TrEMBL record, chain A:
InterPro entries reported for this sequence: THDP-binding, Transketo_C/PFOR_II, Transketolase-like_Pyr-bd, Transketolase_C
Domain Transketolase-like pyrimidine-binding: 4-179
Record PANTHER family: PYRUVATE DEHYDROGENASE E1 COMPONENT BETA SUBUNIT, PYRUVATE DEHYDROGENASE E1 COMPONENT SUBUNIT BETA
CDD domains membership: TPP_PYR_E1-PDHc-beta_like
UniProt entry tagged with the keyword Oxidoreductase: yes
Function per UniProt: The branched-chain alpha-keto dehydrogenase complex catalyzes the overall conversion of alpha-keto acids to acyl-CoA and CO(2). It contains multiple copies of three enzymatic components: branched-chain alpha-keto acid decarboxylase (E1), lipoamide acyltransferase (E2) and lipoamide dehydrogenase (E3).
Keywords in alphabetical order: Oxidoreductase, Pyruvate, Thiamine pyrophosphate
A GO term for molecular function: oxidoreductase activity
Signal sequence coordinates: none
UniProt name for this protein: 2-oxoisovalerate dehydrogenase subunit beta
Source species taxonomy: Bacteria, Pseudomonadati, Pseudomonadota, Gammaproteobacteria, Acidiferrobacterales
Cofactor: thiamine diphosphate
Length: 326, 324
């Protein structure tokens, strides 16, 4: 058992998958010699060589496409995109190719491909480095979209993602890279599907993913002091979405809040809420609430950035509203 | 080439009978390029990938013609089980890795196939067929750069048929000679007549030897012409003259090669007629019959093939919640 930071857990998963399977390669801008913008691949170039840990030019659509082509030939590439904003340049090859090749080949060609990327708001990175675009990938059939919340999760899910025969979009978060957690020394895999009830409760269900999960957990602690027992669900996988766990929790607590850092319009929260309305409308005792980012590009100024995205207090107050306390 | 010509004429007829739907982009006129290049490659061993004008590339690579026709018919026996259609023929058993309808998208995929071959130290190469229109996409430039930088075993085959849909090359492209664009990426390149299959083969052999020899990528341009429109709805009159079409029809690759064989005494008119008849019979009695008689996909299988149908539960889940 060792306490690892989130980026260290990802680095370890890379290291062990590279060691376990010669088909695994890593590609991206500065992933090799430099070791990755967030250090997630540090030392791997020195250990596995330039043929397996490949520094690419700044050409997202095409180096992602090269990863996808290599996956079609049976390699298992992990492509790092430095910020989810830059994944927009690769949307064609991700959405039109990776997501559809299995289907449009009648299941004859598979694409065991992983794209890792941070997708959040942090440190005044401003609009073009702070997009939250999980919803784009969530709305695409043929992709798996996961948002590991902790070092343990990130380690186990990256190992699973590399071994999965589908294209996986692995969304990290700039503010999670330094989270610490004990990770067992033994190898293990965390399934890529299934939401997880991380905290049990009886009065309200708080649903989050990526960094907003942590806001939900902290809000749950505050709510406990008010005598409110909050259940907290980490969605973990946005596609496929585990509607069953959402339904069962809401049928137990009868109240629900969804928190996300992404913009609200046609987002993850709207999908979750649609699920709640469709599947457990009559179990609801109160109007559900969504907590989400302001519908603006993320501003640079620290004070504006702070109010543009939800914090613990927003989730806490949202929950109080669901509970009829405010 | 006669077989390929008849295959596509027959697809045209089936389209007019509403047995084939969607878009149908015929290769009529360009047959010498795919035929000649793949004749010099190792079909079934090398990787082959192309754009949406893909039927003949697939068949020449080794995909059964009856399965390609069944795919056009949207049948379960089709190359892509009826999920792909004309523009998305796949046959991984012969390493034909698809036709793609996003112009320029195959460039990086081809480089990825080549990367895998190089990494595994096989002597496979990747052959990427695309039209001149694709070269104006960013993927062309990005991929040329990486393929050259990393010395990937990939052969880019530019089928310059002068038109990007209905826009003539001089109206869309600053440098009309496509092979010249490769020099920006320090990649060897050459330009050849794409209507004379012997010229195509000779040039392809040199290019393939270069790539297979570990010297990195090669860009080869063939000047060719599609004798029909871009797709079935395109009548061509809006953008090119009858005179131009007639001039190119004189350079029909089947006619050029037929005339050569006749002048050498290898074949006479009766011999050509006999080939045409046998091709006609094979296409009617095998290819079309198979497509017509094959079953449609089952509607119950609509969701099949979206994700891995048989995933390993260790990494796919579902996550066990100890939920009471």
């Amino acid at each position: 058992m060792a306490e690892l930071m989130y980026w260290e857990a990802i680095r370890r998963a890379h290291d062990e998958e590279l060691a376990a399977d010669p088909n695994v390669i890593v590609m991206g801008e500065d992933v090799g010699l430099v070791g990755g913008t967030y250090k997630a691949t540090s030392g791997l170039y020195q250990k596995y060589g330039a043929e397996r840990v490949i520094d690419t030019p700044i050409s997202e659509n095409s180096f992602t496409g090269i990863g996808i082509g290599a996956a079609m030939a049976g390699l298992r590439p992990i492509v790092e995109i430095m910020s989810i904003n830059f994944a927009l340049l690769a949307l064609d090859v991700l959405i039109n190719a990776a997501a559809k090749i299995r289907y449009m080949s009648g299941g004859r060609v598979q694409v065991p491909f992983v794209m890792r990327t941070p997708g959040g708001t942090a440190h005044q990175l401003a609009a073009q480095h702070s997009a939250r675009l999980a919803r784009l990938f969530m709305s695409t059939s043929g992709l798996r979209v996961v948002t590991p919340r902790s070092p343990l999760d990130a380690y186990g899910m990256l190992r699973s993602a590399v071994r999965c025969n589908d294209p996986v979009i692995f969304i990290e978060h700039e503010r999670m890279y330094n989270l610490k957690e004990d990770v067992p020394d033994k190898e293990f895999f965390r399934p890529l599907e299934g939401a997880e009830i991380v905290r049990k409760g009886t009065d309200i269900t708080l649903i989050g993913y990526n960094f907003s999960f942590h806001l939900c957990m902290q809000a749950a602690e505050k709510l406990a002091k008010d005598g409110i027992s909050a259940e907290v669900i980490d969605l973990r996988s946005l596609k496929p979405l585990d509607r069953e766990t959402i339904r069962r929790s809401v049928e137990k607590t009868h109240r629900v809040l969804v928190a996300e850092e992404d913009e609200a319009s046609v987002g993850v929260g709207s999908e979750v809420m649609a699920t709640v309305i469709e599947e457990c409308f009559f179990a609801l005792d109160a109007q559900p609430v969504r907590v989400y980012a302001a519908d603006v590009p993320v501003p640079y100024a620290a004070n504006l950035e702070k109010v543009a995205i939800p914090d613990v207090d927003d989730v806490y107050r949202g929950a109080l509203k669901v509970m009829g306390r405010i | 080439m006669i077989f390929y010509r008849r295959f596509e004429e027959r697809a045209f007829e089936a389209y007019m009978e509403h047995k084939i739907g969607g878009f149908l982009h015929l290769y009529i006129g360009q047959e010498a390029v795919a035929t000649g290049v793949l004749e010099m490659a190792r079909p079934g061993h090398d990787w082959v990938i192309t754009g949406y004008r893909d039927h003949i590339h697939a068949i020449k690579t080794g995909a059964p013609a009856r399965e390609v026709m069944a795919e056009l018919y949207g049948k379960e026996t089709g190359s892509s089980r009826g999920r792909g259609g004309s523009m998305h023929i796949f046959d991984p058993t012969v390493h034909f890795m698809g036709g793609y309808a996003l112009v320029g998208q195959p460039f990086p995929l081809a480089a990825g196939l080549a990367l895998a071959a190089k990494y595994r130290k096989t002597d496979q190469i990747a052959i990427c067929f695309l039209g001149d229109g694709a070269n104006n996409q960013g993927t062309f430039h990005e991929t040329m750069n990486m393929a050259s930088l990393w010395k990937l075993p990939v052969l880019f085959v530019c089928e310059n048929n002068l038109y990007a849909i209905g826009t003539r090359i001089n109206r869309s492209t600053a440098v009309v000679d496509q092979y010249k664009r490769a020099c920006a990426y320090d990649m060897p390149a050459s330009q050849h007549d794409g209507m004379d299959i012997e010229v195509v083969m000779e040039a392809a052999k040199k290019a393939i030897d270069h790539v297979r020899g570990g010297h990195g990528p090669y860009f080869i341009e063939y000047l060719t012409y599609r004798l029909r429109g871009h797709s079935m709805s395109d009548k061509t009159a809006a953008y090119r003259s009858k005179e131009e079409e007639q001039q190119w029809a004189q350079r029909d690759p089947i006619r050029i090669y037929g005339d050569k064989l006749k002048s050498r005494g290898t074949l006479d008119d009766a011999g050509i007629k006999a080939i045409e008849q046998s091709v006609h019979d094979e296409i009617e009695n095998d290819v079309v019959k198979f497509a017509e008689e094959s079953p449609e996909p089952r509607v119950e299988d609509l969701n099949k093939y979206v994700l891995d149908d048989n995933p390993d539960p260790r990494w796919i889940g579902p996550l066990q919640n100890t939920y009471e």
